[in-house]
Amino acid sequence: LPNTTPPKSPRFIVTANGKDVFVFFSKPSKLCTSSCPPQPTEYWKQAYVPTRPFGDPPTDPNATCCFQRGKSYSWATFDHASAAAATGAPPSPPKGVNVTVWSAEPWTSCTLRPRSLGVKCNTIDNNTASFTLASPAKVSVEFVFRNASCNMALGVKHALVVFAEPPPTLAPPAPGKPGVIYFPPGVHEPGAVDLFSGARVYVAPGAYVRGCLRSTDVDNVTIYGAGVLTSEAGLYGGCDDGALVSLCRGRHLRIEGIFAVDAAYHSVWGHIHANHFYGCSLDLSPEQGAVVHNVKTAGWAWSAPGLFVGRHGRVTDSFLRGNDDLLVDPQTGQRWQGTLLWSLDNGWPFMFQWNTGDSFDCPPTASLTGNDGRGSSGSKSTSGDPFAVALRSATTSPAQVDVPSHVSTPPSAPSAHSRSFPTTSPAPCGPHDIVIANTTVLHVEEVDGWGGLRSVFGAWQGMNNTVYDITVKDAVVETAVVTRFFALFVRKSPWGAFDTGILRDLNFVNVAFPNPGSDTRPSLLFGSNGSSGGGGGRVKNILFQNITVAGSLISSASQLPALIDPATTTNITFRK
Hints:
With 576 residues, this protein is mainly β. 3% of the residues lie in helices and 37% in strands.
C-alpha cells in the first residue's frame, strides 16, 4: 500500500503568525547507513602539484554519502501574503509574518541566512526562536546546539529552511480542464507522467508527488505550484535518467514554484532539466528558452546536480541545495538571477565547464541548414549532432546513451571521450553569452577531492572547444571555504580527453567572501601544453574586479592569493 503521509520532521516545529506549518523532512538514503569504505587520500591537505594526476573518485560510488551520514534537512513553506493578512482585518495593511521555530535540541545561538535579509533571530527560550518576515523570503535557520555532536565545523548538520512564498505569477488551473494535470493536496504516486504539447501541470501547495514529469519533442509545457516532487532518493522511481522533471527538446517550457527533492543517485542531468546538451538540445531563439522561477531543489545523492536549463534558459529567484555541482555547465545565452546555493561535500557551487558541448555552438550541418535537431517526423535527428552520434557509437550499453561518461565508467576506463569535437585543434566556439547575477552561496561544505582542484567558482576545461563570455556579478559567499575560491584550468578529465580547449573572457565583478575562514587554499589558473595534439589549451582574458575577502579589496594575485601559470595564461587582471 502507498505511504500516505509525507515525511514529517522530528526535529522542528514551525508556526507562521501562530498557525502550524507542516515541516517536511529528508535525510540521506539507507545507502549511507552502512559502514563506510576507506576514504581516499585527503587531497585538501596536500599542496597543488601540476604533474599529479587528477584524483579518482572513491572506489565505492556511495562513499561520499558517508560524509552526509547523521545529517538531516527540514523545510517548511507557507504563503506569505495569506499569513500576513491574518494579522488584522481589512482595510488594515498586511503586516509582517512572525515565524516561530521550536527545536527538539536545545541551542545556544541562532543565525538567519542570507545575511542580506537583515532579519534578526530572537530567543524565546532554549528551544524556541522567532523572527519576522516583512516580505516573501527563503530563510535558512541555523542553530548552534548545546549537544556538540549535533554541530559541524563546516556547514549545518541539521538544516531547516523556511520558504515564505511570494504570490504566484500564474493562477491555479481548474481541475478537470482539458490539458490540465492537477495534483491536489495529499500524497500521490503516479510514477512517470508523460506530458503533451500545451500541458499545464499544477502541483498544489500541500501536494507530495512521488514520481516524475517527462516529455520529449513537446512544446509549451508549464509545471507550477508550491507542492513537492520527489523520488525519495530513488525509492519511488523517477524518470529514466533519474530526474524529477525531464523535459527534452521543447520550446517555451516553464517551471515555477515547485520543490524538487531527493532525486536518485546518478541523476546526472540534475533534479530538473530542460533541453540539456547531448541529445536534448535545440537551437532555440532567446524567447524560446526554458524559464525557471522560484524553484527549490534539494538532495543528498552524489552525481545528482541542481538543474540544467538549456540554451537561452532563464533562472530567477531559485534555491539549489545538493551534493553535486549546482549551477553547472551553463549553455549559450543563459541568464541566472537571484539564486541561493548550498553546496554539500561533493561538487562545485559554480561549474562553468564540466563536459559542456552543444552542437549548435559549433554547427557542422544542423544550424547552418536550419535543422533544429528534430527530424521531419518529430523524432530526434542525429545528423546534426556529432555529440550524440559519437556517444552512441562509442558506447555499448543503452543506459549510457546521451549520458555523461562518468555515470558508469571510472576515469581510467574507455569512455565516450570521442563525443568531443572531431578535430585536433580547439573549436573556436562553445558555450558563451552567459550572465549570472545576484547570487548568494549560503554554505560550501566540500572538503575537496579531484587532486585538490575543487573551488567555489570552477571551470575544468577537458573538452576541445572554447568556453567564453561569462559574467558573474554581485555574488556573496557567506561562510568559510576550505577549498579554493577560483580554479579555472585546462586539463584532461574523466569527461573530456583533450587538454587543448580554451577558457577566455570570464568576468567576476563584485564578488565577496566576507567570512573566508583560515584554511582556504590559493586559487588556481593554468592552461596546458597540449599533449593531445593541436597546440596547448589556454586561459586568457580573465577579469577579477571588486573582489573582497574579509572586507579587503583584492588588487593582485598575491592578495587573493592565486597561483597563476604565466606560460599558459594571458591577461589575468585584478581591478578595484
